[in-house]
Predict the 3D structure of the following.
Amino acid sequence: MVYTATEPIMNQTEFLSVVMPFKDKLYRLAKRLLVSTEEAEDATQEILLKLWSKSKAIESYNNVEAFAMTMTKNFCLDRLKSKQAGNLKLVHSNYADGQTSLQKEVEAKDSVDWVQKIMEDLPEQQKLVLQLRDVEEYDFDEIADLLDMKPTAVRVALSRARKTVREKLLQKHSYGIG
């Protein structure tokens, strides 16, 4: 296909201004699904390359971020299926608070680790919904679009995932180390 001077072509600067604001979200989603930092970086790079190859059409998308998140989810799930890996990690711990004591930091890390272990046993759909809603802070309609679900199904999956995490954490704290 040959483009004439009248057809707009997105240059690299324009592309970066569109994609860079949500690049970290793409990486975090890939990291939760693929576990490995290196694989997540590779997946993010691959998605950015695919987006660049579609840069001529990117301006026609209503929501480029949602499109990129869907691409990332599908790419990672395909990669997981190809490796027969059923071990998804969806919790992140990239928060920092300079005012906390060492004990509180250790306790917070322990809680995040326990939630991470609990989430590994959740069904895939519940993991994704929990990741997108509670970590990435997407609204229900966006999650429904990304996962091809109805908003009510998203709410049910989120509720079940939170309930399971809550119950298992309460069990852990009630009975000590399990």
